[in-house]
Amino acid sequence: MFSWSARLCGCRFWSLSVLGVILVTCCNVLLTIRLLQNAPDCETRVLPGLTAPQAAKRLVTALALTPPPPLRVNGSAEDVASSAADFTLNLHLGRWDSRRLYKMFDWTSVGTKYVELSQNFCVCLATQSSLERLFSLVQVAHQWAGPISAALFLSSPDELKIAKHYIRFVRHCYATVKERVTFHVAIPRDHPSFTSEARMSAGMENEKLDCSKPEASLRLLMRHRRPEAARWRVKLPYPQNHMRNLARRNCQTSYVFVTDVDIVPSGQQAEKLDAFLRKQHCPDGLCAFVIPTYELDERVRFPQNKSELVRLAKKGLARPFHQKVFIYNQFATNFTKWQLAPDINPEVHVSHNVTNFEFLYEPFYVASDTVPAHDERFIGYGYTRNTQVYETFVAGFQFRVLSPIFTVHWGLQNKKSRPGWRERQNSLNRRNFEIFKREVFARYQKDPLRMLNPRIKHSPAARSSP
Fold it and tell me: Which of 76, 146, 235, 286 lies in disulfide reach of 121, CB 3.0 to 4.6 Å?
């Protein structure tokens, strides 16, 4: 019998002479020496700032990583994507906010075309969400063709596990999410169990998630959150302004559009805004371009253009955002003027300027990335967005309403009683505002709304806020 290697060479082993065997052996030795001489110097090919042993240790650690369990998508078990590409978060790293209340993790999941989109567009959509509302991002990514920087707040290790699972799911099912959205995460300091991640339940691992139902799929996963983790809002305020800043700071464009995750842009808005902003409509850079926001009855389809939206508004199936809940929220936009203005020009243009600015106004707007940040002393509900809008106004920015683009929030909202924890947060933020307004005056030496006049009431409670 002769070996398979000899058979593949096309000769019998015993047909070689002794001299031939010696020659072959010598050739192999010389070839081996030659290859060793040309091999790269491994000791010099290490990461900057790491010694060779440190680099080797990092490599061993990387190879030892266990990929997350496969998802069951539409009933079939399959590995959605590589875990490193879908969601990467090391709890021992991250960065703290200024008061060490929350830990931030940048770039936990990067859109495959995020860098390219950031180079091609001059405006980035910066949005933020709790885990419960994350499904809304699917429609946002479908409507917005530019880069999306999304900050996600996770209140417990249970939510961290669910978030990893769900982000892998939506990245697999929706190319627009996988390509356009980059995720960042914030977790609270006052949750010691984050130091050791919770184990993923076998039930969640085996859930059959349907790509056509992003909201229902998230609800399936949320059932695996422990009851105490589901009640986090009672004791733990949602850090809205931290999340807005986290999303905005990771945008790579010169303009930012800061929104909430359930605010959905009209069709082709990124492309139209990009063309508008490149025409230098604001030479001094002190412009805040307001995009009107409407509530939309859940029984109707998403309006394809402004004309459809106006028709829905006339039928009572759409109305200005928070009109029934807290009218001052968007009142200065002047929706009546926006709806009556004829749209002869299909391109994005300025419909009118905001001339009746007042405190508590909080539109969603596009501006250069030089606008003031959201003050992170305001945590939870009350004085979060409107304080940033107020400081932007004091800083000299002119608010201008754009047309024919718009944004939509699903569902017609009505007044309802607030839970006790929300009122406590609002009261605490009201006290913080007394300090904030004095700091704004000291910073800009202006008080256009006479906020420092003790006779004028500016608090939401005095204006019948929700």
Answer: 146
Closest CA to 407 of 49, 26, 143, 119: 143
Two structure tokens written together for 222: 């949320």
pLDDT tens string 110-167: 999 999 999 999 999 999 999 999 999 999 999 999 999 999 999 999 999 999 999 9
- What are the tens digits of pLDDT across the range 181-193? 999 999 999 775 6
Between the alpha carbon of residue 74 and those of residues 24, 67, 208, 213, the distances in Å are 58, 21, 6, 10
Query: Starting at the edge strand that comes first in sequence, how are the strands of the sheet with 349-353 ordered?
Result: 95-96, 102-109, 181-188, 148-153, 123-130, 255-258, 365-368, 287-290, 398-403, 349-353
pLDDT, tens digit, for every residue of 342-388?
Answer: 777 889 999 999 999 999 999 999 999 999 999 999 999 889 999 99
The one-letter amino acid at 400: R
> Which amino acid would we find at residue 416?
K
Using CB atoms within 10 Å of the CB of residue 218, give its burial: 0 to 12 exposed, 13 to 18 middle, 19+ buried: buried
Inter-residue contact 98 to 185 (CB < 8 Å) = no
How many residues does this entry show for the chain? 466
Task: Report the DSSP pairing between strands 181-188 and 102-109.
Answer: antiparallel
Are the C-beta atoms of 270 and 159 separated by less than 8 Å?
no
The secondary structure element, H or E, covering residue 458 is none
DSSP helix/strand/coil, 258: strand
